């Protein structure tokens, strides 16, 4: 289900792009214009709702009629007090679009800003491992009782990476295309 939705969402962008499967990014054209001790799980169940949140982001019109698919370049997921808070950031036509969503698919915050950086790289979901796979990899060889507090999927140095925030263990940076650990601190 998760992969099918990712493929569906990745196919929604009708603009031509240059894909780079080794970095998990794609070049796009821009126009001028505290979890309770008794209930925590190593990987929260709500982590699997990410695809639904991405769908909400793509279907949200940000107050602008007839919005086409926005290029996503950053996703941040936080698990606090058994809640799932998701921040998605994308860009299109000289604007940055930000959406904050909770675990009930309710929109908590919406922002549109001018893109002063002229963003051109977007996440290529067809070439990125899932957040659940990244979290499982991050928990390998961690201390007993370690659990995921959240993660961020973003583009860094022209490459897509996951930053996995681990409680009772070491935070991990993972290559999104290979699933290999880049850094552990």
Summarize the structure in short.
With 185 residues, this protein is an alpha+beta fold. It contains 3 helices and 11 strands, in the order H-E-E-H-E-E-E-E-E-H-E-E-E-E.
Describe the secondary-structure layout.
Layout: H1 2-10, E1 17-20, E2 25-28, H2 50-59, E3 71-80, E4 83-92, E5 95-101, E6 107-114, E7 121-123, H3 131-139, E8 147-156, E9 159-167, E10 172-175, E11 181-184
Antiparallel strand pairs: 1-2, 2-7, 3-4, 3-8, 4-5, 5-6, 8-9, 9-10, 10-11
Helix pairs in contact: 1-2
Structural account:
Helix content is 15%, strand content 39%. It has 185 residues and is an alpha+beta fold. The protein has an eight-stranded antiparallel β-sheet, covered by helices on one side. Strands 1-2-7 form a three-stranded antiparallel β-sheet, with no helix packed on it. The N terminus is likely disordered. The protein is globular and about 50 Å long. α1 runs parallel beside α2. The termini are far apart. It has three helices and eleven strands; from the N terminus they run αββαβββββαββββ.
